Amino acid sequence: MKCFIGLGNPGRAYENTRHNVGFMAVDWFAREFGIAVKQNKCKAMMGEGVVQGKKVWLIKPMTYMNLSGESLRAFLDYYKSELEDVTVLYDDLDTAFGKYRLRYQGSSGGHNGIKSIIQHTGTQTFDRIRIGISRPAPGSDIADYVLSPFTKEEFKQLPDTLDRICEAMVYSLDHTFEQTMAKYNG
Asked: Catalytic amino acids?
């Protein structure tokens, strides 16, 4: 079994914001493989499917970003799952827009959703795909920036990035995360 948890905020007001790119990646994967993310369980919207013969769970926490760990903890406890079966997808200010970075450990880097996951799992070691949203101009408010929508030009480029992330997600189903990092971090 594999679980992909995309971080974001619920509600239409946040739908197309930079902070919700983790939700967007999960939705992209769900559309690609016909997985309905409609079950309301574990403080999340969840979907279950089979991709390349592997059971896959897709999770979008409905706790708001800062409490994402509550949803992941509920999933792990309810399904008696292991953290090594989980990959977290989320926005990253320190990665350029259009790029992404796979890592298997590290601090929260100031990301409150990751901080919550670390708090609720008790470890900084878990698979993650950091999706680049770039930093705002100097002097800009970070919260306003991450909660603002992508520009029209960024929206045009976003599908290419989400396609590549989806490829990495699929590849990780049959390969270790280290192998996936070697292939997709290039």
From this structure: 19
